[in-house]
Amino acid sequence: MKAVFRGMQAAGLLGLALSLVGCSSYRPWVNSKLPGSLAAAQAAPPAAQPVMMAVTLSGGGARAAAFGLGVLRELKATGFVVDGQPTTLLDHTAMISGVSGGSILAAHFAAFGNATLDRFEPDFLLVPFESRLIREALWPERLYRLTSPWYGRSQILAQRFDELFQGRTFADMRRRPGAPELLITATDLTSGAPFDFTAEQFQRICSDLDATPLSFAVAASSAVPLLLSPVTIHNYADTCPHPSPAIVNTATSADGQSYRSRMLQRTAEAYRNARDKPFIHLVDGGVTDNLGVRLMLDRMVALGSMSANFVDVQPGTIRRLVLITVNSERSLIERVDNSDRVPTTTQVLETLIFGAGSRETEITLGLLNDDTQRWRAEIERTRGQPGSPFAADAEIHVISVSLHDVPDDKMRHSLLRVPTAFTIEAQDVHDLQQAGAQALRAAPAYQMLLKSLSRLGKPAVSLRVGS
Question: What is the value of pTM for the model shown?
Answer without folding.
Answer: 0.87
